[in-house]
Amino acid sequence: MKIAIGLYFFMFIAFFDLHAQYPILTPFAVSLGAAPAFIGWMMGIYALTHLPGNLIAGHGVDKYGSKRYVVFSLISAGIVLLLQAHVTAPWQLLVLRSISGFVLAFLSPACLALLASLSRDAVTQGKLMAGHGVTHTLASVLSPAVGAFLVKLAGFSLTFQSLGWLLISAGLLAWFTIRGKAVEMQLEVSRANAAAADNSSLLPGVPLVYYLLPLGVACSQGILFFELPLHDGGSSEGILHTGIYFSILSLGSLVTLGMLFLHRVSPYLRALGGVLLLALCFYGLTMPERIPMPVVLFVMGMSKGIIFPAISSLFIEVSGGERMGSVFSFQSIAMSLGSFIGPIVAGQLHLTFSPYFLAFVVLMLLLITLPANRRLPKQPIPVD
């Protein structure tokens, strides 16, 4: 349990830093003279550079365990933020965001794989994944408003420096605290799975169609993260307002993550129901004059609180608990692709077509594409 609490803490710090930047990156890029299309590429390149990091993480976590990748990811991301505090041109921000996307790609697969190795019981694993979701949400409830407030109080440069030092401190703490029997057990299970795996098969035992779930959801989320900061024109005066919007979104997630009885429902059904609710919320955002935006964002957050733990539990179930580093690595790759496509397309269509309606269409197509019945899970590997 101690190792789980420690991982939750490090993920909290990382997610706090990440979400604190959501309401301020777009105004910061605008202050540097960036156009909407460039901002879309800036947000998309962050996701694109996740891909090589995800591929390395999948193999590395299965072979060497999670600790070194958690430490590397936190410290490197902190250094990038320190440099980001001194950029003076849009292209410099683009370069640093691409580096940040690469180094942070290691964190999520490493943490999720270590969490999944803490138990072989499906219910307990579901609770651990929900704990990951709660940690993510708690960090994202406060961080957008805090990030916006810091910029209002101290400016962009000092805000980025503060967030950078916070990540570096968390990375150093992770080096000394992630240890013990759970880490050794993860290494033993990971190496056994790697030795038994078919080297001719690149993908772990999860059908490709299931990776459309994180891809489609991440695409819609990328559209939202691009479009919402522009609601008030991307001006510095609207930063605090945007931060509150993101906090409302996270509060909605916290509500459904606290509904522990949902874990009794099939993760596949939870994922489908959450995607349908998310699609309806995007449709609601296309007519803000009829439905207040805070209401829609709150319900949208509730749908996300259902979807993400359900997807992680579904992948554990379908894969039978084998090669979890690779499973979560490919999940992260799918999310990276979606997060890359979403803001870039939204940036190109921003002035001519509603990106929110595009997200609605993407999610409805996702529901149509997914199979009516999930594949039966493999038998879990017995642990002596």
Automatic annotation (TrEMBL):
Transmembrane segments: 30-48, 69-87, 99-118, 130-150, 156-178, 208-226, 238-261, 268-285, 291-316, 328-347, 353-372
Main location per the UniProt record: membrane
Keyword Cell membrane: yes
SUPFAM superfamilies per the UniProt record, alphabetical: MFS general substrate transporter (SSF103473)
Entries under InterPro entries matching the protein: MFS, MFS_dom, MFS_Efflux_Transporters, MFS_trans_sf
Pfam families: MFS_1
Compartments (UniProt record): Cell membrane
Major facilitator superfamily (MFS) profile domain segment(s): 3-375
Keywords noted in UniProt: Cell membrane, Membrane, Transmembrane, Transmembrane helix, Transport
Gene Ontology CC: plasma membrane
Molecular function terms, GO-annotated: transmembrane transporter activity
Source superkingdom: Bacteria
Topological type in the membrane: Multi-pass membrane protein
Protein name from the UniProt record: MFS transporter
Native species: Paenibacillus yonginensis
